[in-house]
Specification:
Layout: H1 11-19, H2 21-25, H3 31-43, H4 45-63, H5 71-87
Helix pairs in contact: 3-4
């Protein structure tokens, strides 16, 4: 390994971290999980890019008003959200 190369994190760890992005941005992680998340993201180029993209995407979405969307897109968006909610695991 050269001086500038880093070991690649395991794909499983990256999957766990990316699954926490929404909770991280909503500041809903416990302190230990938040510290693990931030430590991983600091050292993982791919997860850093994913976090930045997710953040910018959610900011763009939040800036849109529902009324600005064409009617057919409104219908498809609602349908997709309903399907996603049906498939989501229930939180206790």
């Amino acid at each position: 390994m050269t001086k500038h190369s880093q070991a690649r994190p395991s794909p499983e760890l990256c999957q766990r971290v990316t699954a926490l992005v929404a909770d991280y941005l909503a500041d809903e992680l416990d302190p230990a999980t938040k510290a693990m998340f931030e430590g991983h993201v600091r050292g993982c180029v791919d997860c850093t890019a994913f976090l930045k993209t997710y953040r910018k995407t959610t900011e763009a979405i939040h800036s849109l008003r529902y009324e600005m969307l064409p009617a057919d897109l409104q219908d498809r968006a609602l349908e997709a959200l309903r399907d996603k909610l049906k498939k989501a695991p229930r939180r206790r």
